[in-house]
Amino acid sequence: xxxxxxxxxxxxxxxxxxxxxxxxxxxxxxxxxxxxxxxxxxxxxxxxxxxxxxxxxxxxxxxxxxxxxxxxxxxxxxxxxxxxxxxxxxxxxxxxxxxxxxxxxxxxxxxxxxxxxxxxxxxxxxxxxxxxxxxxxxxxxxxxxxxxxxxxxxxxxxxx
Length: 160
What we know:
The protein is mainly beta. The protein has a single domain, classed as Lipocalin, CATH 2.40.128.630. It is built from no helices and eleven strands. It has strands at residues 15-16, 20-24, 57-61, 69-71, 81-83, 86-90, 97-102, 108-113, 122-125, 128-133, 143-147. It has a four-stranded antiparallel beta sheet with strand order 1-2-3-4, with no helix packed on it. A four-stranded antiparallel beta sheet has the order 5-6-7-8, with no helix packed on it. A hairpin with a 2-residue loop joins strand 9 and strand 10. The chain is globular, with a radius of gyration of 17 Å. 30% of the residues are buried.
């Protein structure tokens, strides 16, 4: 899929919907520098070994291993969630946001802004997304967010 590298490859777990596996890879070789500030790569002779890798978001057919779609600029340290025909990923460094994609095509439906990064898993509960925020570089806005369509109150399931 991608080279991997010092800060790359699959860090968060993938999601499975019974047919496909979805996941996002991290940054690549970003984060290692020599004494002159130049990026150090695992294999400088390999043209695919870059400081930041793309594509970063992937879908795999679970039976054949085929790759139906990939997307770039969405590196993630977080696990991928799949629910209701959508995938959800917290972004690593490009934005304090989560990406919502169509699982069938990879089309980006929304980039939902957050008060800080989402490097945790995203749980789906009825019409709500429940997720943690915060990162090792910015703990000021660490906490839990509950997101719903249009910001309406979540539909809380009732016990019977």
